[in-house]
Write a structure and sequence with these properties.
The chain has 488 residues and is mainly alpha-helical. The chain is built from 19 helices and 3 strands. The longest helix is centred in the first third of the chain and has 38 residues. It starts with a helix and ends with a strand.
Length: 488
C-alpha cells in the first residue's frame, strides 16, 4: 500500500502513516538502536540487582521472624490435641444436633438491642419453641466447654482454600445459648440465666487460640451475642449482690487483645501464601495457551522484585498491627506520617510520586494521606488489598469490649441498689461505696456515661464514631452510642 494511495483515498490516515514511517526509520537507525539496547541493558541490570537485594532482604526478614518463633506458613499454625482433651470433638456433635433440630431459629431479633418491646414480645413464643426443640443439645455444649483445649481440624497450609465450617456452628451455638439466657431471665430464673451467660462466654473462648482472622471475628460476634442474655438478667429485681459479683468477675476475665495478635499471625501466613501462589502461578494451572506463558513470564521475572518489596511492606503492616494490638481503637487511628513511626521511607514516597504523576493523577498520593496506621505505598497493591479489613477488626474488638464493660458496670449498679436500696448518683459514688474496680469506655479512655432515669438508669459508651450522642442507641454501624438501659 503506497503513501499516494493513502493520501488520495484516506486523507485522515496521512499523519498516522507518516508517524509510522518515521518510527520505522528510527528503529533501523543504528545509533537509535544502540541507545535502545543500552537502556534495555541498564534496566535488565537494575532489575536483576533489585531482585537480588530485595530477595535477600525478604529472606533476612523471614530469618528474624523464625528466630522469634513466629509462624510463617500454614504448617507452622497446625496444632494437635488428644481427642480426650479436645472440646472441638464435642462441638462437632453439637453442630450436627443443631442442624437436626426441626424448629428453625428465626427469633434472633431478641438479641438485637434495637428491637422494640412489642417486637420482642412477638418473637418470644418462637424463641421458646426453638429452645425447647434444642433442649437435648445443652448437656453436650456444657461438656465441650469443660474440655481444657479446643482445636478444630483446619488445613492451614491451604491458605485461601482453607475451610472454617466450625465458625458458623459456633455462632449458632452462641445464639442458642444467648436465647436460652433471655428466656430464663424472663421466667425469673436469674441464676439459670447467669449460668447460661457464663456457658456462652466459655463457648466464645473456644476460638481463643485459633490464629485466624475469621476465627477472631467469630469470637467477637459470639461475645456480643452473649451480652444479650446479660442485659435481660439485669432487668430482674431479684439479682443478688453475690450473683452480680460472680457475673462481674466472669465478664472481667474476658480479654480480646491476645486474640488479635494471633489473628495477625494467621494473616501473615495467609499473605505469604498469596504471594507464593501468585509467583508460582499455581492459581492459573487450569489456564492454557499464550496467556499462561505471558502471565508466567511476568510473574516469574518481571514482577518478582516488586513482589518482594510488596511482601516486605505486608510484613511491616502486620508488625505494626501486632504492636498496636493492646492499643484502643481511638489510639490506633493515629495517622503515621514519618519513618520513625513506621511510616513511608524515601523509596516509598518516590515510588508513590511517580505513580501519582504518571498513572493516578486523580488520586492524592498516599504519603500525604497515610491514615489508619496502615500506611501502605501505592506500588504494594496486593498488600493494600489484603490489609484493608484490619482496622474494622479493631473497631469490632473495642465494640465487644465496650459491651462487656457496660455489663460489668451494670452488674455493679445492680449490686449497689441491692445494698443501698437505690442507684448511685454517679459512678464515682459507686466506686467509693462499693469498692469495685470499674472498667473505662475503650472508645474514650474515660468512665462510661451514666445517668439515672426514673427508677432505672441509662449507661452508654460513645461507640466507634468517638462522639457523645447523648445515649442515642446505634441503629447503623458508626452511628449513635452503645447503650445499656435498665428500667428497674
Amino acid at each position: 500500500m503506497s503513501s499516494e494511495f493513502l493520501d488520495s483515498d484516506f486523507p485522515t490516515f496521512r499523519r498516522m502513516w507518516r508517524s509510522i514511517k518515521t518510527a520505522i526509520r528510527a528503529v533501523f537507525n543504528r545509533r537509535v538502536a544502540l541507545r535502545l539496547l543500552a537502556i534495555i541493558a541498564v534496566l535488565f541490570v537494575v532489575h536483576a540487582m533489585l531482585m537480588v537485594v530485595w530477595g535477600r532482604q525478604l529472606e533476612a526478614r523471614f530469618a528474624q521472624l523464625r528466630a522469634r518463633g513466629e509462624p510463617l506458613n500454614g504448617i507452622d499454625l497446625a496444632r494437635r490435641v488428644p481427642d480426650s482433651e479436645n472440646g472441638a470433638v464435642v462441638y462437632e456433635k453439637v453442630f450436627a444436633a443443631l442442624k437436626a433440630a426441626g424448629v428453625p431459629l428465626w427469633s434472633s431479633g431478641l438479641l438485637d438491642v434495637t428491637t422494640t418491646a412489642k417486637d420482642r414480645a412477638a418473637l418470644e413464643p418462637e424463641a421458646r419453641k426453638a429452645i425447647a426443640a434444642r433442649a437435648s443439645v445443652f448437656p453436650l455444649i456444657e461438656e465441650g466447654a469443660r474440655k481444657p483445649k479446643c482445636v478444630f481440624p483446619v488445613r492451614w497450609q491451604d491458605g485461601a482454600d482453607a475451610l472454617f465450617p466450625h465458625t458458623s456452628g459456633l455462632r449458632e451455638t452462641c445464639r442458642v445459648v444467648s436465647l436460652k439466657a433471655i428466656i430464663d431471665a424472663r421466667d425469673g430464673k436469674v441464676d439459670a440465666a447467669l449460668k447460661d451467660v457464663t456457658l456462652g462466654l466459655k463457648v466464645s473462648r473456644a476460638l481463643e487460640k485459633e490464629p485466624g482472622l475469621i476465627s477472631y471475628l467469630t469470637r467477637i460476634s459470639c461475645t456480643k451475642m452473649i451480652t444479650g442474655g446479660l442485659r435481660e438478667a439485669t432487668r430482674s429485681r431479684s439479682l443478688s449482690i453475690s450473683q452480680a459479683r460472680r457475673m462481674y468477675d466472669e465478664v472481667g476475665d474476658i480479654s480480646l487483645a491476645e486474640g488479635f495478635v494471633l489473628a495477625m499471625q494467621g494473616e501473615r501466613t495467609f499473605i505469604n501464601w498469596c504471594f507464593d501462589t501468585i509467583r508460582t502461578g499455581s492459581f492459573l494451572r487450569a489456564s492454557a495457551g499464550s496467556f499462561k506463558k505471558v502471565s508466567y513470564t511476568i510473574r516469574r521475572y518481571l514482577w518478582r522484585p516488586i513482589s518482594y518489596k510488596d511482601q516486605m511492606v505486608a510484613m511491616d503492616v502486620i508488625d505494626r498491627q501486632m504492636r498496636r494490638a493492646k492499643l484502643p481503637y481511638r489510639q490506633a487511628l493515629t495517622p503515621i506520617r514519618s519513618s520513625e513511626n513506621g511510616g513511608l521511607n524515601w523509596f516509598d514516597v518516590t515510588a508513590d510520586r511517580i505513580l501519582f504523576w504518571a498513572f493516578l493523577p486523580d488520586i492524592p498520593p498516599s504519603y500525604e494521606s497515610c491514615d489508619n496506621a496502615l500506611c501502605v505505598p501505592r506500588y504494594a497493591m496486593l498488600t493494600r488489598f489484603l490489609a484493608s479489613a484490619h482496622y474494622s477488626t479493631l473497631q469490632g474488638r473495642d465494640s465487644a469490649m465496650a459491651e462487656l464493660g457496660l455489663g460489668q458496670v451494670a452488674m455493679a449498679l445492680k449490686a449497689y441498689k441491692s445494698e443501698f436500696g437505690a442507684y448511685p448518683a454517679s459512678l464515682k459514688d459507686l466506686k467509693t461505696k462499693l469498692s469495685w474496680r470499674l472498667p473505662d469506655d475503650p472508645f474514650t479512655g474515660k468512665p462510661f456515661v451514666y445517668k439515672r432515669a426514673g427508677h432505672g438508669f441509662l449507661l452508654y459508651s460513645w461507640g466507634p464514631d468517638l462522639k457523645d450522642d447523648h445515649g442515642k442507641q446505634r441503629e447503623a454501624p458508626g452511628d449513635g452510642d452503645q447503650t445499656w438501659v435498665s428500667e428497674i
